[in-house]
Amino acid sequence: MKLYIGKWQLPLSNTNKLVVKGLFVKKQLCYEISSNGCRVKIEIDWSNIIGIRAAMKKNEPGVLEVELSEPPKFYKELGQKDVGAHSQWVDGSDFTRGQASTCRRHFIMFPPTILDKHFERLIRFDERLFMLSQRPYPTFNVPYFHSQQFLQTALQTPFRNSNAPTSDADPSSTQLYTSDSNDPTS
C-alpha cells in the first residue's frame, strides 16, 4: 500500500504501517500512520473533497485519488498508557514536509480488490461524493491550494441527483485497509 501527497510519499520500511479509514459518522477520510512506536494521522472532511476518482481493475492495485478544497487536519497521538485504551489525539503539524498543506491531490494505492467494496460503500453512502465520482478528475488544473479562484466555481455547483444510489450502510466507520510491511502485496 502506498500514499502519495505532492512530492511526498510514505517511506516504505518495516516500521511503517498505514491504515486508511472511512469515518461514516464524522464524514471523514482518515490516514493513520504508525512508525517506530509513534502515530500520526491526517483527517479530511468529506465536505472538503472536490474531486474523487477510483481505478479498480481485476488483479491490479486499486487506486484512490482525492482532490481537496483546503488542507487537511493533522494530529499526533499522545502516549498510550494502557493497552487497549482509546487513543488520545492532539493537534499536530504537517509531517509530509509541507506537501499536504500545499498540494490538493492525494493518491493511495491499495493491493488488488481491497478498495472495491469500500469505495462502492462510500459513494453509496454520500450522494455528493457519488456525484463527484462521476465528474472529470482533477476538477482544477492547479494542484496547489494557494490558487483559490477555483472555489468560486467548484464549490458553488449544486449536487442534486435523484438517480444516486441509496444507502443501507450503517453510519459507522469502516477500515479500508491496513498495510503490513511484512505482506509482499502491500
Automatic annotation (TrEMBL):
Record Pfam families: PH_TRF2_HOY1
Cross-referenced InterPro entries: TRF2_HOY1_PH
Residues annotated as domain TRF2/HOY1 PH-like: 2-115
Chain spans, region Disordered: 159-186
Name the record gives this protein: Uncharacterized protein LOC111467928 isoform X1
Organism of origin: Cucurbita maxima
